[in-house]
Amino acid sequence: MLDALPDDGQRYEVIDGELFVTSAPGEGHQDVVRLLVVRFSRHFDGSDVGAVMVSPAEVWRGERFRNRVQPDVFVVRRTEGKRPAYPYHLGGLLLAVEVVSPGNPLLDYHVKRDLYLREGVGEYWIINPEARIGSRGRGQNEPGDVIGLELRWKPDGMPTEFVLNLPTFFDEAFR
User: Fold this and answer.
1) Could you give the CA distance from residue 36 to residue 80 in angstroms, rounded to a whole number?
2) Residue 1 belongs to a domain
3) pTM, to two decimals
């Protein structure tokens, strides 16, 4: 049924069999997503570890009809230097990033966080442009962190750490 929904600019996602509909992202949201993709792409350029992806792109788990999501930005694990087959499985994500949508922040902070971390996504970030902070989750049983200065991440196999200085990042995104 999800495939039959109209291409009307809304984002349709299914989590544990429940349909979530969010409006098309605004300009500020997309500025943040664009800059994240640029930063992650620079970091992973030439890497055999991960491939940077941006939505709309489908990620699923288990029964595809019960769980289909579209993280704003994500890094999928490469195997032998190649991306896995599309659509991507949640278990193959090294990182999922959501930029908070003002219309339904509980979707990002609670529902998606629970799904991503219980399904083994290596790390989950929530970027909140309005508050100019980031949140990070690294495991389902971990409380997570709220970060105002720098988000740091170094997946296995990467020679250097990815560092996102949040004040600088937000200044650049909203120039």
Assistant:
1) 25
2) no
3) 0.90
CATH number, residue 141? 3.90.1570.10
**Structural domain range at position 74:** 7-173
Q: pLDDT for 72-124, tens place per residue? A: 999 999 998 898 988 899 989 999 999 997 777 888 888 889 989 988 899 99
Question: What crossing angle do the helices spanning 166-173 and 27-44 adopt, rounded to 10°?
Answer: 120
| H helix intervals, the chain | 27-44, 105-106, 113-118, 166-173
- Residue pointed to by tokens 């790390």: 123
Q: What is the mean pLDDT of the chain?
A: 88
Q: Which residues contact 89 (CB under 8 A, 6 or more apart)?
A: 59, 60, 61
